[in-house]
Every structure is written in structure tokens, then in C-alpha cells.
Amino acid sequence: MGSMEDTEESAYKWTPDLSVGIDALDDDHKGFFEMADQLRDAVGRPEPDPMTVESILLVLDEYVTGHFWREENALKKGPHLEYVAHKREHDKFKTRYNSITTLYYDGRREAIRELPELVCSWIVEHIRRTDRRYAAWLKATDVDRRPLALLVSAQDMD
Ligand SMILES: [Fe+2]
Predict the structure, then answer these.
(1) CA distance readout (Å), 35 to 61, 84, 137
(2) Does the residue 54 lie in any domain?
(3) Residue 158, pLDDT score
(4) What is the pLDDT of residues 62-106, one digit of tens each?
(5) Which of 40, 73, 101, 133 could, after both became Cys, cross-link 116 (CB 3.0–4.6 A)?
(6) Can you tell me the distance from the alpha carbon of 3 to that of 121, in angstroms, rounded to the nearest whole number?
(7) What is the CA(127)–ligand 1 centre distance, in A?
(8) 31 alpha carbon – ligand 1 mean position (Å)
(9) The whole model's pTM is what?
(10) Quick check: is 61 in a domain?
């Protein structure tokens, strides 16, 4: 295994320096890396299998919707401006994410190839610049620990 390969692989893994100090949120973040890695593997094949790609996308959708809700809902306990700025970052990402998956479902299958890299590079930057700001004050008890699927339906009722 060459060093290039090692570097590339590590970009798709959560590392302890990305911890925000709250297990529920760290676990969600790990899921983004895991799903991006699975997606990279699936779309990197010569003939990507739509069933595989789409089942990964369903889980990834759950992370984007459910995890963002988990974080935003917890951030409502802190300064309002922090919450608003943070939510804006999430919304911007959601727009990019949705534009790619919409293209894919509209039949522009090749569009999905850029999603794994987008998810990984975005989550690393976002944790470092934005999530780490709440690490100083957010408490584990502020965070709704229910499973992602339930948070997705909670957000539908917002
Ligand atoms: Fe965030």
C-alpha cells in the first residue's frame, strides 16, 4: 500500500482531533465519514449499482436531515446569533447536497461522483470552523439522543 493511498483513505475517516466532546454528535459525524466512504466505493466502480448507491443515499439523507436537526435543536439553548449562523452553514450545505442528488435522480447519474468528496471535505471544514465553537459551552444533556430516524420525523413537525 503506497503512501498516497494512505492519505486518501484517511480523508474518509473521523479522527479524534475532530471531537466536539459530546458522544452523540461525534457519533453522527463519524457516520458522515462512513457513508461518504461507502458512497465513494459504490460510485467508484465501473458500473455503479443503483440499488447500492440509492440505499447509501437514503442513510446519508438521514444524517443530513437528522444530525443537522439534532445539532440545531441543541444550539437553541445557546446564543441566538450562534444558532442562526450555524443553521445557515447547514442550509448552504443542504442546498449543494440536494442539487447533486436531484441531478442524480433526474438521470444525470455521473453527478453523484462528486458527492463523497463534497461530504468529506465539507464536514471536516465545518467541524473545525463551526462545530468546535459550541464545544466550549454545549452540554451532553442539551442534546437529543434519539436515533436519527426519529429526529427526521421530529424535524418534519417543526
Ligand atoms: Fe454543524
Answers:
(1) 10, 27, 29
(2) yes
(3) 66
(4) 999 999 999 999 999 999 999 999 999 999 999 999 999 999 999
(5) 40
(6) 20
(7) 7
(8) 13
(9) 0.91
(10) yes
